Amino acid sequence: xxxxxxxxxxxxxxxxxxxxxxxxxxGRQAMNDDQIQENQTAMEKKDPVNESGYFVNSxxxxxxxxxxxxxxxxxxxxxxxxxxxRHAGTERAFTGMYxxxxxxxxxxxxxxxxxxxxxxxxxxSGSGWPSYYKPIDEKHIVExxxxxxxxxRIELRCARCGGHLGHVxxxxxxxxxxRYCINSASLSFExxxxxxxxx
Length: 199
Ligand SMILES: [Zn+2]
Description:
By secondary structure, the chain is an alpha+beta fold. The protein has helices at 2-23, 33-46, 70-76, 79-87, and strands spanning 54-56, 62-64, 105-109, 115-118, 122-123, 131-132, 141-146, 153-158, 164-169, 179-182, 187-191. It has a six-stranded antiparallel beta sheet. Mean pLDDT is 82; it is low at 1-5, 7-32 and 35-49. It binds zinc ion (ZN).
C-alpha cells in the first residue's frame, strides 16, 4: 500500500510543476508562507471591514469603506453582478459588456462606484475579459492570495466595498508587465464626454 502512493505523489508533483511553469509570475515570484502571512496582515489592515472606516488613496483622498449586508447587495446588484462581485464568480470569456469596448472613459466598481481603471491603460489581451496594465490608483485595489481551483493566483478586490473584480497576472504589456484581468460585470463604464481632456 505504501509504494502504491508514490506514483500518485510524483504525478501530483509533476502537475504542480506544470502549473507553476504556466502561472508563476515572472516579475512577482511565487510567495512563500511568510510573504503570504505578510500579505494577509496587510490585507487585514486594508480590509473594508476594519475599524477605521476609511483609507487614504495615492492622491491623498479619504475613501470611506462601503459595508453592506449580503441581502442589501443582492437587492441592489443584478444577479450576474451579485454572483461575481459578492461571491467571486467569473463571467464566461467573450460574453461581458466591456472586453471589446474601445471608448475613452473611466471604469468604476459596479458595486460602489470607486474609479478603478482608465481606458488609457486598457488593451486587447485576447483573453475575452477586459484587460488593463495598471489601475487608476493601486490603493483602490486590494490583492489577495487565491488558491482556489488548485491554482495559485492573486485575486483583485475593490478596496472600498470588497467586491471581487478578477485576478492579476504577470503576462501583461509594458510598462508594468501586468495584466489586470477583470470581469465586465464588476465594472461600470463612464464614457468620457466630448471635449474633455485626456486626463
Ligand atoms: Zn467597490
